[in-house]
Amino acid sequence: MMPRTARPPLPRVGALAAVAASLLLTSCVSNAQSTATSADIAAKKIPAKVSADTTLTVGAPDLKVALELSGQIGKLPFRVKWANISGGPQCSEAFRAHALDVCSAADIPSINAHWTGLDTKLVAARYREDPIADPIYELGIAPGARIRSLADLRGKKIAYSPGQAQGALVLRILKKAHLTQKDVHLVELASTGDVYPTALGNRQVDAAPIADVNVKRYLTKYGGDGGTTIRHGLRDDPAHLWALTDSVADAQKSAAVRELIAFWARAQIWVDTHPRQWIDGYYVKDQGLSHEDGAYLVKRSGHPVFPADWTDAIERQQQTVDLLAKEQKHKTFDAGTLFDRRYERVAADATAGERKTP
Description:
Layout: H1 17-23, H2 38-42, E1 55-59, H3 61-69, E2 79-82, H4 88-96, E3 102-105, H5 108-115, E4 120-128, E5 137-141, E6 157-160, H6 165-176, E7 185-188, H7 195-201, E8 207-211, H8 213-222, E9 228-230, E10 239-244, H9 245-249, H10 251-273, H11 275-284, H12 291-300, E11 304-305, H13 311-328, H14 346-350
Parallel strand pairs: 1-2, 1-3, 6-7
Antiparallel strand pairs: 3-10, 4-10, 4-11, 5-8, 5-9
């Protein structure tokens, strides 16, 4: 439930008051990092109950809307300060400023955080029931680029964002096509808003990974000129709740995170089973998209699954770590250290009666 739309959400002034003030200090504390470590928390027992006075600052705007629409937001057994931020760069900045406890993110931000010395944990994992049939990204092809398969990428200009999920996907696509960075021309572009579709339409690049509603808009705008997309055939579906290690090292906050995960997982199921309410309440009223775009996004999103065993997820994360380490000249590490396995079964157990888990 992390839509990647071309239009960023409008800021909610009240919700961000405390967080914004802290983020103003980021330049002064840019080197501030978690003091807790993986070894510290692995053996820590999470309290059975959470104090009602416990407060978490959570960067998951879509979750807030889902809980409001489903009538669950008032049932949270702790206090929440909702921050209108999500995704790797914003959450990393807030974590460093100690202005955030938990946020929504994909798989790459936690890896980059590790390489920059920021100690964080993945505390919940969601995937798509059929990630190949329902990918987040498709490879946009510029008009006249003459790319009909991944093998045709040789010698082409490809949009590349090293620190984001799109960048990692490009590297995985090259590997699948038996190509290296030397076989193509990687053009570094930040994958924000409609930057990639515009770069494709202007033929600044020949190929670029584009997501969700950007796929529809790109084909509508440039399809008549020959713009197309192709499927990459790879899994690109990881979605996580991501936490500062210091936060899950705190006894009461760790209990609050456990409860948050359960509410988060049930909210995913509610969204999946109430598409009309979600389109109207989130995509249209909250995000300002058209009903048509909202329906398109719901259709693309597939159905959520919550693995009760993270072994396969960690193995896939390790493959990503190893690939990025090789291609971006980093030191590889044990991907298992990114996951707080104390929370491994929480989402699956919370939704066991509502949807079958793998």
